[in-house]
Amino acid sequence: MQFICDREPLTDALANASRALSSRGSITGLRWTVTAGLLEVEGRESDLSIRSTVPVDGADTRFTTPAALAVDLMKSLPGDRVEVVVEDAVVSFRSGRAEVSLNLLNEFEVPPLGVEDRPAVTIPSAELASGIAQVAIAASKDDTRDLIYSGMLFASSPEGLRLVATDGIRLALRDIGGINMLSESDTGEVVIPTRAVRELERILSGSPADQLLGVQIGTREAVFSVGATTLATRLIDEPFRDYRRLVDVSYSRVMLADRMQLISALRTLRRMAKEARNSSMLRMTMTGTSCELSVKIPQIGQVHEVIDVNFSDEEFSISFDPDLLADGIEGVESEVVRFEFLESNRAASITNSDSRSFVYLLMPIVQK
Predict the structure, then answer these.
(1) d(C-alpha 210, C-alpha 223), whole Å
(2) Which residues of 153-181 are buried (b: 16+ CB within 10 A; e: fewer)?
């Protein structure tokens, strides 16, 4: 059996599908299926599946290859076209004057993911990708923690769609107007594993800005389709924590600061903070018109910088992890960042200066 196709889209399809596999050495591999002139490449594990399609010329066939090696070899081949030949238990890739061969893997038996009897909702993809990028930073990267800390809430809101994630130290929230992808959901909200959400954001970011996204939300699974790629994921079957009482707080202190000044100052401060053997902290000391940002590492050195601000109270100091602070500031879209504070041991709020469509709550570091 053999078929021919363009090498570049095949390379992209292999790379997309392989990201569903949790390790480069995954024994499940990539499943290749050619039917009626269309190749589908799929990477599938028990909770995540990514499949991409590529038009081909040739006979129907089905086989499984190692994932990482197939991707790397396809990237390195010369020529714009590639011929794929399957003989016995070996697949060969021929392009230009190069030919490589791989032993096939046994077909993996992982239950398929999909949503039955649920209509697809079509929504714009660009703003969803931007919202996911803003919120996913607050989700835990440790898969061994409570599932809710490694998931993102997708919930219906009066404006459209609300995204929320938290790792227990920080919380990020983004309201996206005009998007309703949960109209068919039984509860109006679902929790999607962060790993799947980050892969979705990566796929959307690589698509044209005007690309539409097809969404199907079921009781246990969700499916997202954009262009030639489809991502399916299991949902987290636990309610998201009650975050509203954390967001709906009246703050007694407000600081307004130029976003680019903050980002510029943080570059130097974060570099010094990296010298700390354990954790480091950035101290903010505010007065009516200025804010001093400082990092001090014992036996190494210190950095401090003063920026112009508008602060609503008398002198106030609070300390944060510099990297977590930078994540929140970089998520703000307005030119001016709005900080809101209660006390030096309570979570601070970072938002746009003109709206609360993006909210980032960050717990401070309290000195003992």
Answers:
(1) 20
(2) bbbbbeebbbbbbbbebbbbbbbbeebeb
The DSSP string of 146-168 is -GGGGEEEEEE-SSEEEEEEE-S
pLDDT per residue as tens digits for the range 297-311: 888 999 999 999 999
CB contact set of 96 (below 8 Å; sequence gap of 6+): 77, 78, 79
Dihedral over alpha carbons 132, 137, 142, 145 (to 10 degrees): -80
Could you tell me the two tokens for 120? 């697809």
DSSP letters spanning 248-265 = S---SEEEEEEHHHHHHH
CB atoms within 10 A of CB 337: 25
Using the predicted structure, report yes or no on whether residue 328 has a pLDDT greater than 90: yes
The radius of gyration of the chain from alpha carbons, rounded to an integer in Å, stands at: 24
User: What is the DSSP annotation of 59-106?
Assistant: --EEEEE-HHHHHHHHHH--SSEEEEEEETTEEEEEETTEEEEEEPPP
Global pTM? 0.89
